[in-house]
Amino acid sequence: MKYLLLIVSDPTLPSPEPGDEGFDAYMGAWTRYTQDMIEAGAYGGGEALQGAETATTVRHQDGATTVVDGPFAELKEHVGGYYVVDVDTLDDALAWAKRLPVGTGAVEVRPIFPTDGF
């Protein structure tokens, strides 16, 4: 079963940028996590996302479609990235979510709707 690990954090909390002290260690933790997932055969993909200020939202409502700069709602937290894991159970997906090196933040774990046969 595939699960989405949606990485959510407070954009006001600092995280190291390229060239900052601690950046290599920060990125190393993410690289090791991803490599562990690949080696376990659970990796189904993943990407980091640019900031919420770069978002564009297409909203469909009452037969009309509008395009708006920015995220879909006022946010105190933002989605920073995601992983797709392909594992046997929700408990397996939760185990990967618990290992994510997010520091302060949350990981929403959601099953991906199977579209096989459609």
Automatic annotation (TrEMBL):
<dbReference type="Pfam" id="PF03795">
    <property type="entry name" value="YCII"/>
</dbReference>
<protein>
    <submittedName>
        <fullName>Uncharacterized conserved protein</fullName>
    </submittedName>
</protein>
<dbReference type="InterPro" id="IPR005545">
    <property type="entry name" value="YCII"/>
</dbReference>
<feature type="domain" description="YCII-related">
    <location>
        <begin position="1"/>
        <end position="114"/>
    </location>
</feature>
<comment type="similarity">
    <text>Belongs to the YciI family.</text>
</comment>
<dbReference type="InterPro" id="IPR011008">
    <property type="entry name" value="Dimeric_a/b-barrel"/>
</dbReference>
